[in-house]
Design brief:
single chain; mainly alpha; 10 helices; 0% strand; Membrane protein YhhN; transmembrane; transmembrane helix; membrane
């Protein structure tokens, strides 16, 4: 896919990678201000990659992927602009909208996903959802229903992402892991992962990047597909008259 990208797209890929590396380094060094600023810039840079790497008409998958990246950006940015008490709910709200946008983007590809091709693979996704809700239930209290809804939409996104191929399947699974880590930290009292912020952001950026790469790859493949050959009809080329019949 790399050779098919424009110079602008390659530049934005480089910008996104640098931002990810700087952000992860800031997470590891507890440089809060640098971590916040770079986090606010991640999704706009990734959206720029998608825009410059795809061509008009971009279609449903690309358009709704850009919507999902937009809501993800709001989920990264807005919590820092509101009070600490509301920050978590605001973040979850925007990321729920991002997951819904991904579901809308990938839904037309459901027949290519494991839902139709390998239904047995739905069992691990279902197991993850049940386990996540069970772990979060004691600490979620009144938020248990919203947590279950968010978990269901998140797993639906990961399942439908398999319709774009292996890259998107891995991206959806890694994104699922990222949000699961956030839920575990928020609702499971005994959860204590060293470097929690680092691992959340690593899986978040990798998951989003792989999903974007799969969407771009599909768009490029569609543009490079050969045009269907027109079917000849009698209107285009009248039949050659039969001389024998004409003589009779």
């Amino acid at each position: 896919m790399g050779r098919s990208l424009s110079m602008a797209a390659r530049t934005w890929v480089a910008v996104f990678v640098v931002l990810v590396l700087v952000h992860l380094a800031a997470q590891g060094a507890d440089a809060t201000t640098l971590a916040d600023v770079t986090q606010w810039m991640l999704m706009p840079a990734l959206a720029a990659v998608v825009v410059t790497a795809t061509r008009w008409p971009r279609g449903r998958v690309v358009t709704w992927t850009l919507v999902a990246l937009g809501f993800s950006w709001l989920g990264d940015l807005v919590p820092s602009l509101v009070g600490e008490d509301a920050a978590f709910l605001v973040m979850v709200g925007f990321f729920l909208l991002a997951q819904v946008a991904y579901v809308v983007a990938f839904a037309p590809l459901v027949r290519r996903s494991v839902v139709h091709t390998r239904p047995v693979l739905l069992l691990p996704y279902a197991a993850v959802l049940v386990a996540l809700i069970a772990l979060c239930a004691p600490g979620a209290d009144a938020l248990l229903v919203p947590v279950a809804i968010y978990g269901g939409v998140l797993v639906a996104m990961a399942v439908l992402a398999t319709g774009l191929g292996r890259t998107a399947a891995i991206g959806g699974a890694v994104f699922l892991l990222s949000d699961s880590l956030i839920a575990l930290e928020a609702f499971v009292p005994w959860w204590d992962l060293a470097g929690q912020g680092f691992w959340v952001m690593l899986t978040y950026t990798v998951g989003q990047g792989l999903l974007a790469a799969a969407v771009i790859g599909r768009n490029i493949a569609e543009r490079q597909a050969p045009e269907p050959r027109p079917v000849r009809t009698y209107a285009q080329r009248p039949p050659v008259p039969d001389n024998v019949v004409a003589l009779v």
